[in-house]
Write a structure and sequence with these properties.
single chain, 8 helices, 63% helix, elongated
């Protein structure tokens, strides 16, 4: 893997120490540089998630990681947090966000429905076929319980 062209020593020579600066100050410094250099957010994000530079890739990987022990849901999976912000703060983009997730949602629905269809406990055996048995098998609460059990057990 390659490394960044401008390392710690470069920045130490060119800007004063920002170690004690607040996060907000550091973020303003970063965004000011992005704007000054005429780098779009798209270019920056694509670089962050496609580069082979280990220091950048490590941070992108941390962003994409799931942390079940995080103190709250929004800190468990940052992409979900970002999606929620986009969804809530840019209503005109919602249709595009929904279009973006439709293929994934479709895939999940198909996997889960295939799981239900092939579940051994929901199979009808002709030797045991009775009206009462079919009615019992097709009760909405039975189907819902079986679905919940499969999802909770992650059998699908």
């Amino acid at each position: 893997m390659s490394s960044l062209r401008f390392d710690q020593s470069f920045w130490e020579k060119h800007i004063p120490s920002y170690e004690s600066a607040t996060l907000e100050t550091k973020l303003h410094l970063i965004m000011s540089l992005v704007i000054f250099l005429s780098v779009s957010i798209q270019q920056l994000v694509l670089f962050m998630f496609t580069t082979n530079i280990s220091a950048v890739k490590r941070r992108a990987g941390k962003f994409m990681g799931f942390t079940p022990s995080a103190p709250n849901d929004s800190d468990q999976f940052y992409p979900a947090t970002l999606f929620g912000i986009w969804h809530d703060q840019w209503p005109s983009s919602r249709v595009h966000l929904h279009d973006m997730i439709k293929p994934c949602a479709r895939e999940i629905v198909l996997e889960e429905s295939d799981c239900l269809v092939t579940d051994p406990s929901l199979k009808v055996k002709t030797k045991d076929l009775t009206v009462s048995g079919v009615r019992n098998l097709l009760k909405p609460e039975k189907l819902l319980d079986q679905y919940r059990h499969m999802i909770a057990a992650k059998d699908c």
